[in-house]
Amino acid sequence: MQLQVEPWQGKCLDLSKAYKQVRLLPAHRRLSVIFFHDKSGNPKFYVANSLMFGATAAVYDFNRISRSSWFLFNKMLLIPCGVFYDDFLLFSPEDLACNADQSTSSLLDLLGWRHVRTGPKGRTFEEKFQVLGCSLDLTGLVRGELALENKPGRLDRLREHFQKVKAAGSLPLREAQVLHGLLRYACGFFAGKHLHQVCAEIM
Questions:
Q1: What are phi and psi of 147, to 5 degrees?
Q2: With a cut of 50, which residues of the chain have pLDDT below it?
Q3: 63-96 pLDDT, tens per residue?
Q4: Domain boundaries, the chain
Q5: Which CATH fold would you assign to the domain 8-150?
Q6: Which of left, alpha, beta for 119 (phi over 0: left; psi -120 to 50: alpha)?
Q7: Average pLDDT of the chain?
Q8: Closest Cα to residue 7, out of 96, 79, 134, 123?
Q9: What does each C-alpha distance from 192 to 64, 111, 113, 131, 135 come to in angstroms?
Q10: What is d(CA 196, CA 182) in angstroms, rounded to the nearest whole number?
């Protein structure tokens, strides 16, 4: 008798304005002051009530929180999961995907986390889905194959920029910076990172 292997699906679950949901302890507000001079040269002070996006300490603080949620998804709900800051990459067998979707949302509700739900903004579990700027294809996972590729449109955008440079016969600094950014991201999907040398040459 041949064993039937069930297809797998996945999705990327995103916390809504994650840093803004983490309130600062009132006693620590004195450590979260933003100072600058305005256009007139007058001093301006802003005091943050939540984690400040971009601050090194805020990243370390939030990483502990997101890792805790990751642990609960994996150990408590038994949903295979990865995490990158406030983006959670969830996997599930096709028949259990709906249950996994509801379970993760229910747990986040209990913890008080606002998040993107399945619906107009939140995608449901799928065999091929977008995650962190790339496309992940689980169609061949039952055969031991996993496809990771550039999201639709990125390669077309690169092609357009190169055609513009070719037509102009020059590579202005701004155009080089745009191409460098696109290539740096795209080259992560090539074995051996061959495009890294192209990035170096452009800059």
A1: -105, 125
A2: none
A3: 999 999 999 999 999 999 999 888 899 999 999 9
A4: 8-150, 154-202
A5: Alpha-Beta Plaits (3.30.70)
A6: left
A7: 85
A8: 96
A9: 32, 42, 39, 22, 19
A10: 11
